[in-house]
């Protein structure tokens, strides 16, 4: 029996639109892309790094995540992975909870997590060997996706599933929303020193034009209000502000999400 060592892989953030990150994973020869909402910036990076596209992975059906698929398929014939419970043009492999995705060219394996809430079919891709999570618009750095299709209970359960991953897991979310999210987090929990420190650090990154993503599950658990809806000081603040009538975990989460929607 031979041991297969993981290849040395790089994850590149490809900015698109106002604040999207399209994620490109490569080994210097082959590349997989997660959520290519636009083909042009992906094609430009592939050309400049002389990479061949070998796989496309999609988290959910929104156009800023899938809009580049058709054009990429005109340049490369590759498998397109996507959620089983959503209809997305170009998807060749429909995935549900517990499925594996193998990208042989990169010796890369993902397991699939169903994380409904932002959309009903939303999935996330976990690369356990590398400790990478590609979670689309579910868990954001300092926040979470809007509930376009799912319920607060669904989103809360999806975030709990992600929060249960190892603390060192790198969280590759799909948008640079971090500073706005942390401003809200500070309104929710001004007494959290880890949050105050993070806000300063992320502000410094943005001032230098750097991405704040990826973050880690450990950092999110320490600072993201949507993973902290049962912290007593947060629950007390929601009640004191008249935002929470019925004191259940789902109601607290829903109250936070509703507050953020108008913040
Ligand atoms: Zn979305
Ligand atoms: Fe999005």
Q: What features would you describe in this structure?
A:
There is one protein chain. It is built from nine helices and 14 strands. It is α/β, with parallel strands linked by helices and 263 residues long. It has a single domain, classed as Ribonuclease Z/Hydroxyacylglutathione hydrolase-like (Metallo-beta-lactamase, Chain A), CATH 3.60.15. A six-stranded mixed β-sheet has the order 1-2-3-4-5-6, with helices on one face. Strand 11 and strand 12 (143-144) form a beta hairpin. Helix 5 packs antiparallel against helix 6. The longest helix has 15 residues, at 193-207. It starts with 9 loop residues before the first strand and ends with a helix. Zinc ion binds at residues 60, 62, 65, 118, 137.
Short description:
With 263 residues, the chain is α/β, with parallel strands linked by helices. It has helices spanning 39-49, 63-66, 69-75, 152-163, 178-188, 193-207, 217-223, 232-240, 249-261, and strands at 10-16, 20-26, 30-34, 52-57, 80-83, 93-95, 100-103, 108-114, 123-127, 132-136, 139-140, 143-144, 170-173, 215-216. The chain is 34% helix and 24% strand.
Please name the fourth-level CATH homologous superfamily. Answer: Ribonuclease Z/Hydroxyacylglutathione hydrolase-like
End-to-end gap: 57 Å
Helical content class: 25-40%
Alpha-carbon Rg, integer: 19 Å
Chemical compounds bound to the protein: zinc ion, fe (iii) ion
Q: What is the annotated CATH architecture?
A: 4-Layer Sandwich
Number of domains: 1
Oligomer: single chain
Largest sheet, in brief, is:
6 strands, mixed
What is the count of β-strands? 14
- Portion of residues in beta strands equals 15-25%
The shape is: globular
Order of helices and strands: EEEHEHHEEEEEEEEHEHHEHHH
Structural class: alpha/beta
**Would you give the CATH topology?**
Metallo-beta-lactamase, Chain A
């Amino acid at each position: 029996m031979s041991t297969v060592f993981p290849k040395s892989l790089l994850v590149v953030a490809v900015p698109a639109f106002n604040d999207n990150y399209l994620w490109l994973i490569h080994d210097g020869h082959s590349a997989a892309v997660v959520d290519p909402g636009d083909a042009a910036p992906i094609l430009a990076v592939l050309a400049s790094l002389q990479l061949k596209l070998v796989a496309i992975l999609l988290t959910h059906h929104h156009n800023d995540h899938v809009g580049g698929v058709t054009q990429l398929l005109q340049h490369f014939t590759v498998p397109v992975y996507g959620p089983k419970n959503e209809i997305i043009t170009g998807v060749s492999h429909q995935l549900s909870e517990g499925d594996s995705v193998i990208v042989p060219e990169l010796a890369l394996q993902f397991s699939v997590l169903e994380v409904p809430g932002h959309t009903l079919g939303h999935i996330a891709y976990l690369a356990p060997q590398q400790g990478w999570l590609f979670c689309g618009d579910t868990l954001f750095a300092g926040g979470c996706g809007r509930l376009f299709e799912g319920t607060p209970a669904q989103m809360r359960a999806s975030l709990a599933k992600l929060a249960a991953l190892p603390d060192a897991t790198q969280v590759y979310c799909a948008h640079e929303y971090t500073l706005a999210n942390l401003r809200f987090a500070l309104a929710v929990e001004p007494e959290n020193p880890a949050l105050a420190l993070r806000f300063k650090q992320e502000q410094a990154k943005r001032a230098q034009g750097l991405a704040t993503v990826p973050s880690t599950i450990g950092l999110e658990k320490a600072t993201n209000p949507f993973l902290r809806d049962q912290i007593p000081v947060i629950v007390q603040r929601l009640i004191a502000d008249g935002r929470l009538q019925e004191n259940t975990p789902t109601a607290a989460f829903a109250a936070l999400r509703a507050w953020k929607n108008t913040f």
